[in-house]
Write a structure and sequence with these properties.
This protein has 181 residues and is an all-alpha fold. The chain is built from five helices and two strands, in the order αααααββ. It starts with a helix and ends with a strand.
């Protein structure tokens, strides 16, 4: 499992770099969208907001399958996966995300669903404006919490502790529950 923990931690760090670029690109395109009557910029912003959440969901799927040993099926699997990231898995891992971050991300999950199922000319510019305005704070929370989780995985890999065994980590209660005794 130690190799898996290191791999997942590396994947988290790599994906966070990509997500940072997606946010910068989204903000840059949004500036153009507000200066132009061309609604194609709005389409590009929507696509990048879609990509932001999709990138996060890829990470959540990796964590769920590689660390938690679970997968999801059914119509509400996207919601269930996001909820699972706020759950402490006793003996395995602390919560990956705080409920505050989950709630922020749920807006992007919902918007991603809209982008996938609605013609772009039907997108709501006001809703996109709200999401773009909240994107940087959402990214900062995600960065903080996922980097803390990646650090946890790396410490776990270095400790030689396997899931379910006693070890030097306590999960505590709190936003992401990561701590060292």
């Amino acid at each position: 499992m130690r190799g898996v923990y290191r791999t997942v931690a590396g994947r988290i760090r790599q994906e966070l770099e990509e997500l940072g670029r997606v946010v910068e690109r989204t903000e840059r395109i949004w500036q153009q969208a507000t200066k132009s009557a061309d609604d194609l910029y709005l389409d590009a912003v929507a696509l990048n907001l879609h990509g932001f959440y999709t990138g996060l969901e890829r990470l959540f799927e990796v964590i769920a399958s590689s660390v938690d040993g679970s997968g999801f099926t059914g119509g509400d699997w996207h919601q269930a996966l996001l909820r699972q990231m706020t759950a402490e898995i006793p003996g395995a891992r602390p919560a990956v995300l705080s409920t505050e971050t989950r709630d922020r991300l749920d807006r992007y999950r919902g918007f991603r669903h809209v982008v996938r199922h609605v013609y772009t000319y039907n997108l709501d510019a006001e809703q996109i404006a709200v999401l773009v305005g909240q994107l940087r704070p959402a990214l900062e929370g995600v960065f903080r919490e996922l980097l803390a989780f990646a650090d946890f995985l790396e410490r776990l890999a270095c400790s030689g502790r396997e899931e379910g065994s006693e070890g030097p980590f306590h999960f505590g209660s709190g936003s992401s529950g990561l701590g060292r005794m």
